[in-house]
């Protein structure tokens, strides 16, 4: 009998490891033991739990969401796994409330398209990162809104890398790595994932 974790089961998370190629993303990000990282838009903790196991006891994961019910579920999920290095943060829609100049990597996975205040968020992320720290964004672009305006893409819960690349550069980041086609989100043919890795200046 699988144990339900809010909307997800353990099996769903294992399947997500596969279609999201999570190990590839973690390797690309360069996260290592002892790092301080953040997961913005953490939901029930899928990525936060992976990160907690990666950074281990000397490291720390700031798991940020705007919904306290999700954070409570995450805390329960972490407790079951005996993970004590995750700190949940109830963020605002324009501020993830992260510590300044302390983080090695910030992850924003399938969440950036939801951020109306994306310019402010990117500045907060930049302020939270150490010099040389990195931000990784992953999104999905739906075929039916490809080449459409940013507004049209966002209203379809989708976003293209061309908009985000420009916004990262405008915020003062340098793009250091990119995956243009990271596969299909939830294996659905019309949802192509892409990944951007950007760095704060040293």
Q: What share of residues is helical?
A: 25-40%
For the secondary structure, the number of strands is 9
How far apart the termini lie comes to 50 Å
Largest beta-sheet characterization: 7 strands, mixed
Report on the structure:
The structure is a single chain. The chain has 202 residues and is α/β, with parallel strands linked by helices. The chain is 34% helix and 28% strand. It has seven helices and nine strands. The chain has helices at 10-19, 22-29, 46-55, 68-80, 118-128, 150-155, 161-170, and strands spanning 4-5, 8-9, 36-40, 60-65, 86-90, 103-109, 129-142, 174-179, 191-199. The chain has a seven-stranded mixed beta sheet, sandwiched between helices. Strands 1-2 form a two-stranded antiparallel ribbon. It is globular and about 45 Å long. It starts with a strand and ends with a strand. Residues 1-6 have low confidence and may be disordered.
Short descriptors:
single chain; 202 residues; globular; alpha/beta; disordered N terminus; 7-stranded mixed β-sheet
Concise overview:
The protein has 202 residues and is an alpha/beta fold. The chain contains seven helices and nine strands.
What topology emerges from the helices and strands here?
Layout: E1 4-5, E2 8-9, H1 10-19, H2 22-29, E3 36-40, H3 46-55, E4 60-65, H4 68-80, E5 86-90, E6 103-109, H5 118-128, E7 129-142, H6 150-155, H7 161-170, E8 174-179, E9 191-199
Parallel strand pairs: 3-4, 3-6, 4-5, 6-7
Antiparallel strand pairs: 1-2, 7-9, 8-9
